[in-house]
Amino acid sequence: MAEPFLIGENMTGGYGGADILHGCTLSVEKGQIAVIVGPNGAGKSTAMKAVFGMLSIHTGSVRLDGEDITALSPQARVAKGMGFVPQTNNIFTSMTVEENLEMGGFLRRDDISGTIEQVYDLFPILRDKRRQPAGELSGGQRQQVAVGRALMTGPRLLMLDEPTAGVSPIVMDELFDRIIEVARTGISILMVEQNARQALEIADRGYVLVQGANAFTDTGKALLADPEVRRTFLGG
Prior knowledge:
Pfam families: ABC_tran (PF00005). Helix content is 37%, strand content 26%.
């Protein structure tokens, strides 16, 4: 059986001397959406940071498209096709929307204008506001800038750390729709999300983490239908 496009396998590690992840495994197939959910303090964002190389793991490995990238820095992983959108401080507030997007393409040596147009097609409001300082935008629009900037790197895998944090339900639905559109272009999505029920509805694969370990792993639909998952994590 072919290996998933991305797999962080049996990851154990943390910050300083304390392990937060305990044998955690995450994977995502090409062009699919994998969602990490679980209670506060479960290690969701830590698991994503381990995949991106922001956290050293002392057991386990991370492989992208069959290549072991466990020892690579985050910058080297970006060059391999990973894009990461942190939950906070993810835009340059004093720069315009378009300048933010251009910053996202700084590693590239080719013409980025076509990619900027693709971002504007995905997020039409950003085209309208492209000359505005990003700090003047609403929370949902800022998130669109952050995702757009990550897309400017031309990623094969896009990682999103709680992309809908602090936005209204309407904006959350719109962001999820755009994330589905990104996946349809063939880009794999790995996402940490507090809005577990809504996130699992769009997930091809779902991971419920508890205390840094896999508690439940299945398709998004199967997890939504699982009585134990519903009772323990989704409020019935």
